[in-house]
Amino acid sequence: MTIFSKIAAGEIPSYRVAEDENYFAFLDINPVAPGHTLVIPKKEESYLFNLSEADYAGLWAFARRVARALEQAVPCLRIGVAVIGLEVPHCHIHLVPLNKEGDMNFGHKMTLPAEQMQEIAQAIAQKFE
Prior knowledge:
alpha+beta, 5-stranded antiparallel β-sheet, 5 strands
């Protein structure tokens, strides 16, 4: 079981922003920008392109809904999207609030206070439909 599966199951705490029966979204604990969110399928699969057609489409549809909530909750010009998948063997989509191209620099990670992370997570969750 991956760390992301444990997070989705509630075994490891997270800053949850959205969830349905198949997908889960939570703040990255080492964001590249405030509001950096990870979107995962609850069904464990290490590689995005190994998902079934239905799971692949469902993950992107869920990520779109999360991105719309994120852009309302965190002031930004766009939401950047990345799929890297090398750190954790559980496919995931990065949603990153952007105001300039340099905001999507995965070599620049930050640590935010727990209170700020909780405020951001709650703001996104309130906008999620």
